[in-house]
Write a structure and sequence with these properties.
This protein is of the alpha/beta class. The protein has helices at 17-33, 70-79, 116-123, 138-147, 169-182, 196-207, 221-229, 240-247, 261-264, 290-312; strands at 8-12, 38-43, 57-62, 86-89, 104-106, 153-157, 187-190, 212-214, 233-237, 252-256, 271-275. The protein folds into two domains: 3-123, Glycogen Phosphorylase B (Rossmann fold, 3-Layer(aba) Sandwich); 139-312, 3-Layer(aba) Sandwich (Rossmann fold). The chain contains ten helices and eleven strands. A six-stranded parallel sheet has the order 8-7-6-9-10-11, with helices on both faces. A five-stranded parallel sheet has the order 3-2-1-4-5, with no helix packed on it. Helix 1 runs parallel beside helix 3 (116-123), helix 4 packs across helix 7 (221-229) and helix 5 (169-182) crosses helix 10. It is globular and about 60 Å long.
């Protein structure tokens, strides 16, 4: 079909924040390929904010997980009365076969071998894989300037959805002190998710005598993206926030231990990962040393500066 004939697209993506962020590269590709199309996004509640500012988004259908997979039935009921030109299903469900569509692209979900971002791109015959993006507007950037009015900020994200992926908060504190010795004008923007449990994880960092700014908790994801975009760099655990930071195209250092860097390394112009010593997928975050993280982060900033100088030469 000609791109101009594709006008109604259903895009089914992840319930998890990180996976949803990774999928935005494919969405950005579809926006450019089908300039006449309007998009309906189906995703979980945690990920919905990623698409709040997306161009040509007609609707977001939030899928709340239910027993007996009834959330899929509710999605079918919401979509059955429409005729779709294209259905893209990143969850590998059977729903696209139960809806009227001129074209379908169904990608197997679950664990895979290799990077998730490249797995998605392969289904569209894209190489290299399109990088994730983050959509923001003027109001989001204005809100970000209210909370981060200066220029010298390093983002720290010490939380994750599983304690096994969390680098000890004492090491984040030690890392911040090391960074200040080399970059004395820096302040630390501390990011974390909503809820008291997330706050308690970062409270030791916020309580110590360091130039920290609390930017966690109750912001929209677009506002978080705008604040991350104001930071000189990011250090954080393997998490949705890590992927979100990478989509903002700032220098990102993701910390990995028991999660698989071969699948979920951050994807961005200046995104890197550092992995604890040990077997992939089984290493302890305690094996990740502060000095190694600091050296990797310092090198990341230096590499970005070198790249920008060459681009402006």
């Amino acid at each position: 079909m000609k791109p101009s004939k594709i006008k109604n697209i259903l895009f089914i993506t992840s319930t998890r924040l990180g996976d949803a962020v990774i999928s935005t590269g494919i969405l950005d590709y579809l926006l450019k390929t089908y300039p006449q199309a309007m998009f309906t996004i189906a995703c979980g509640p945690v990920a919905a904010g990623i698409f709040e500012r997306m161009p040509r988004r007609k609707e977001t259908i939030i899928m709340y997980k239910q027993r007996y997979d009834l959330h899929w039935f509710h999605l079918w009921r919401r979509c059955i009365m429409q005729s779709w030109d294209l259905i893209v299903d990143l969850r590998g469900s059977a729903i696209s076969l139960c809806l009227s569509s001129k074209k379908r692209i169904v990608i197997r979900g679950g664990r895979i071998g290799g990077r998730r971002i490249e797995h998605l791109a392969k289904a569209f015959l894209l190489a290299p894989a399109p990088l994730p993006v983050m959509w923001m507007n003027k109001e989001d950037h204005s809100k970000a300037r209210e909370h981060l009015p200066g220029q010298d900020y390093i983002a720290l994200a010490p939380t994750a959805n599983w304690m096994g992926k969390v680098w000890p908060i004492e090491r984040f504190i030690e890392l911040a002190k090391r960074i200040l010795l080399t970059y004395p004008t820096m302040q630390f923007a501390v990011f974390y998710g909503p809820g008291q449990q997330e706050y308690e994880m970062v409270r030791p960092l916020l309580s110590i005598n360091l130039p920290t700014i609390d930017v966690g908790g109750d912001f929209t994801l677009a506002q978080v993206g705008a604040m991350l975009s104001r930071c000189k760099g990011f250090v954080g655990n393997d998490s949705g926030l890590m992927h979100l930071a990478a989509s903002c195209q700032i220098p990102v250092l993701g910390l990995f231990g028991p999660s698989k860097v071969s699948e979920y390394a951050p994807a961005g112009l200046y995104a890197r990962a550092i992995v604890a010593k040990g077997e992939e997928g089984k290493a302890s975050m305690n094996a990740l040393l502060v000095n190694d993280v600091f050296i990797a982060f310092k090198q990341l900033l230096a590499d970005q500066e070198k790249i920008l100088k060459n681009e402006n030469f």
